[in-house]
Amino acid sequence: MTDAVIRTASLTRSFEMGSTTVQALRGVDLTIERGEYVAIMGPSGSGKSTLMNLIGCLDTPTAGDYWLNGTSVAKLDQDELARIRNREIGFVFQSFNLLARATALRNVELPLIYGGVTPDARRERAAAALRAVDLEDRMDHRPNELSGGQRQRVSIARALVTQPALLLADEPTGNLDSKTSLEIMALFQRLFEAGNTIVLVTHERDIADQAQRVVTIRDGKVASDERKAPAAAGDRKT
Amino acid sequence: MNAVEATRLAVESIWANRLRSFLTLLGVIIGIAAIVATAAVIEGLNKYVADKLSDLGKGTFTVQRFGIITNRQDFLDAIRRNRRLRREDAFAVRDLCTTANEVAWQVRSTADVRRGDGLLKSCEVGGITPAILEIEPFEVADGRIILPFEEQRAVPVAFIGNDVVEQLFGNVDPIGKELRIKGQPLRVIGTARKKGSFLGVSQDNFVKIPYSLHRKLYGTDRSVRISVQAADPSRMDECMDEVRAILRARHHLRPAEDDDFDMLTAAGINDLWRSLTTTIFSIALFVVGISLVVGGVVIMNIMLVSVIERTREIGVRKAVGARQRDIVLQFLIESTLLSCVGGVIGVAVAYVASWALRSFTPLPAEFPVWAPPVAFLVCTGIGVFFGISPARRAAALDPIEALRTE
Fold first, then answer.
1. Closest by Cα among A223, A216, A100 to A151
2. Which of A38, B38, B48, B137 places its Cα 20 to 30 Å from the Cα of B365?
3. For chain B, what percentages of helix, strand and coil (3-state, to nearest 5) are there?
């Protein structure tokens, strides 16, 4: 229990749409342990994006509770959530979301800037993160000088640079061709084997199958939770 | 995020949109440039006037029919009330005033001055008593000034300004040569050193002749201007009171009646001048203030556009941990820096403009040293004031919505 990166209890989120209230999540109980590689699946409208926003601390639940790395974050204010996002979560987006005017290195430095890391340490850590995704020779390139796969690797380096408790990827291969997708998925596999906790949100079955565990969301609830035989991660969990 | 980072971001952002930034800043540039250039001209004028007035000498004042009149009603009152000051008034002051060191007077008229075939039109002809040259000193370039006996006997001599020398004599030495005014031949006895021009009006276009000779040529009905130098400059007020009493007695004024003449001191003229230029400056400030407000609104507008354009960037920054205040700081520094860049350009334009005014126009513009720091403060104020609303708007964006924006 103490080693759970994510633990939610009856997580509920509803939206006011004019006069009606839409229940996007109707009580989700989900626990993800450290070192797990989990895919969250579900058709559009299932509530998986809402769940991802809550897990990513971009949003707060209407009811229920959520502990991220042991801290209850359900009732935190905007700035406290920003701090949690900065320290505990690394985001990987479908459309990369890199700053167009900044070099790869500057993009990777971004979370460290908000984390108050000194410029020298920042540079060093950003460079190390880029090396970890095999982009040490592209540090001074801007996003428009990089291929889609390279851009996504920069964005993964940005997510990793703060050494977060959780790597949260939202359709990370959605904008990539199948060959590049395989490369990125291989990179996630490598990161998983290196001990990172990864949550991957996708609607593609074959992408989800790369993970050790697949959680399916339907109508705002967990519909299924399949674990594969723990292979590489087996020795990390008791 | 600290201010250094935010400044770096702001510089990158302004530079990336440099044409747009420049156009955005036109209002601020023009506003700052206009106000500083106006200040430069006024500063120059003030300095010039103060400089000229110091010529008048300490403890000196003048008495004349009309003082400096700045509105129509005062002018009409003065015309009705004030009598011409006559030679006899001047005599009375000279003879009766015990606290005066020197008393002199002059009358002025305008005439065409001829030398042979040469003609100088509309030259100031001043009829003076020699002591005036002690009170309002002229620097003698050559020859000498008019002597008391020449005034007493109306000797036809002339002390001339530099313009007269240049226009009528050229390279010829004018001393001892002859001029004619209204057919009266005059012998040049001295020339004054060049004074230059003030607001485009030459200060060297004059011929000084003895007062008695002026009376012969132009008659006796012109009002004289009396110049008085107090014996003790620190007690000039007493001297002024005495002169006032003498003239009021001569003019038979009852105690309740206003003076029917006007007295001016260098300090008085300077005060009046300064209040005049201060008024001009306040009006200019008001007009230019409007342009600065417009400039500020344009900055606010472009910052709002910038926030909308960069919604996604803001979303990313928030996702990776930017707090509200980080976003506020980023946009506030950008708007402030933008505004200050406008201020710097504006001050530079004003600096060049005041140099150009000084060099190519008669206006004695003097670039004010306080302009750069004040412009900096004003622009910082504009940047913060007009930047706060866009910055708040950026900070308040919902990260989920912002990331979803195309």
1. A100
2. B137
3. 60, 20, 25
pLDDT single digits (tens) B84-140: 888 889 899 889 988 888 898 999 899 999 988 888 888 999 999 988 877 776 788
Mean pLDDT along residues B349-374: 87
Answer whether B321 sits within 8 Å of A114, measured CB to CB.
yes
Question: Which residues does chain A have within 8 Å of residue B400's beta carbon, measured at their own beta carbons?
Answer: 53, 58-59
The predicted structure's pLDDT at residue B404: 86
SS3 readout for chain A: CCCEEEEEEEEEEEEEECCEEEEEEEEEEEEEECCCEEEEECCCCCCHHHHHHHHCCCCCCCEEEEEECCEECCCCCHHHHHHHHHHHEEEECCCCCCCCCCCHHHHHHHHHHHCCCCHHHHHHHHHHHHHHCCCHHHCCCCHHHCCHHHHHHHHHHHHHCCCCCEEEEECCCCCCCHHHHHHHHHHHHHHHHCCCCEEEECCCHHHHCCCCEEEEEECCEEEEEEECCCCHHHHHCC
Query: Measuring CA to CA, how many Å separate B218 from each of A34, B65, B87?
Result: 113, 18, 14
How far apart CA B61 and CA B84 sit, in angstroms, is: 18
Please tell me the distance from the alpha carbon of residue A170 to that of residue A217, in angstroms, as a whole number. Answer: 15
State both tokens at B360. Answer: 């190519």
- How confident is the model over B207-220, as pLDDT tens digits? 999 999 999 898 88
- What pTM was computed for the model? 0.74
The token pair that represents B84 in the structure block: 């011409």
Decide if B400 and A58 are in contact by the 8 Å CB cutoff: yes
- Please name the amino acid found at residue B205: N
| Region B338-363 average pLDDT | 89
Of the candidates B16, B313, B321, the beta carbon closest to that of A115 is on B321
d(CA B405, CA B313): 10
- ipTM of predicted assembly, 2 dp: 0.91
Hey, is B147 helix, strand or coil?
A: coil
- Taking an 8 Å cut-off on Cβ atoms, the answer to whether B12 and A101 are in contact is yes
pLDDT tens, residue by residue, B254-280: 888 888 888 888 778 788 888 888 888
Question: How do residues B148-161 score in pLDDT, each as one tens digit?
Answer: 899 889 999 999 99
Residues in chain A: 238
* pLDDT beyond 90 at A18: no
Alpha-carbon distance B304 to nearest alpha carbon in chain A (angstroms): 19
pLDDT at residue A75, rounded to an integer: 85
Helices (H), A64-118: 78-88, 104-114
